[in-house]
Model the fold of this input.
Amino acid sequence: TFRVNDVAEGATGTYYLRIYRGAATSTPYTLKVKAAGETEKNTWQRASNLGTLRSRAVARTSRIGELDVNDWFKFTTRGTRALTLALTGLTADLDLSLFNAAGTLIEAAAADGAADDVITGTLTAGVYYARVCVPGLTSLDATLNYTLRMIAPLA
Done:
């Protein structure tokens, strides 16, 4: 894996990539190119902030693609709250996980195939992270759309 980070953020234009053969023998390779914005939610430190969890449902529609195998979402609770997280609208297998502020896994849902992944439980006040990912964090040959739903009824 080789990453090029020398292009200024937001710089527009045409770019060229040249590949050289380093040895006398041929070596098969796969070249994948992506824009930096495609990975903006790929770490819990750069999670998309959903704000403070309230009594209404929150839904975010997004997608995971060929090189973007993981999306993180951050949310906060102000008190003890019941919570249902649901990963819906799947056309293939994706997994859903819930983490605390320290990055420790609280619960994971890994339904097979396109079945919805659901996590239910009670959370105390704090910061939490939901991760949507490709099983095994492997690459994809397509883009998968999904909806992450958060339902937190009043206690």
In short: DSSP finds no helices and nine strands in the chain. The mean pLDDT is 79. The two ends are 48 Å apart (CA to CA).
